[in-house]
Each structure stands twice: as structure tokens, then as C-alpha cells.
Design brief:
Blueprint (H helix, E strand, L loop, with lengths): L22 H17 L7 H17 L8 E2 L11 E2 H10 L1
Antiparallel strand pairs: 1-2
Helix pairs in contact: 1-2, 1-3
Length: about 100
């Protein structure tokens, strides 16, 4: 299964204050996908694309979950930028899964 993590544009790259692989940003994406799927009819022609994207992102995010407390970090690809859990992104991830 392919890995998908949403990132911000390259103009954000290199800035220590806002990770391009934001836990909160990815939480918004998967949370939005979950909400869309709640409203989308089961027979909608492209529903499968939304389902596949959500499943792929959820699998990718699950691999990045902190083992010590089950939460995610502010920067998904750099757990030290900043270090520690990020509760808003974690809540979105749990909601969507």
C-alpha cells in the first residue's frame, strides 16, 4: 500500500516553526475525508477513491503514532520539531479511523 502524508508547499520547507508534514494538517485531511464519506451516497461513482485515500492515509498515519502514549507529534516526519505529543492532530486521526 502506498504511503500518503499531506505536506505544505515547498515555500514552507526549512522553517522550524511550521512543519511541512503537520500532524494537525494531516488530521484535518483525514477528518474531512471521514466527514465527506458520511455524507456521500454509497453508490456515488467516485466514492471508492475517497475510501482508498482515507485507508491509505490512515495506514500511513498509524505507522507514525507514538508508541509511548498513542498520540501523534506536531511534525509527523520529525518527532523533535517540536518534541512531544500534539493533541488536536491526534484527535482528528482517532476520529477519522
Amino acid at each position: 500500500m502506498a504511503s500518503i502524508i499531506a505536506t505544505r508547499g515547498s515555500r514552507r520547507a526549512g522553517r522550524r516553526t511550521a512543519s511541512p508534514s503537520s500532524g494537525r494538517g494531516n488530521g484535518w485531511v483525514v477528518g474531512g475525508l471521514a466527514r465527506v464519506l458520511e455524507a456521500l451516497p454509497a453508490d456515488y461513482p467516485t466514492r471508492g477513491r475517497y475510501v482508498d485515500t482515507l485507508k491509505t492515509m490512515a495506514a500511513s498515519l498509524a505507522k507514525l503514532q507514538r508508541k509511548e502514549d498513542g498520540l501523534w507529534t506536531a511534525s509527523l516526519l520529525d518527532a523533535q520539531d517540536p518534541a512531544g505529543p500534539e493533541t488536536t492532530g491526534s484527535a482528528f486521526c482517532v476520529y477519522s479511523m
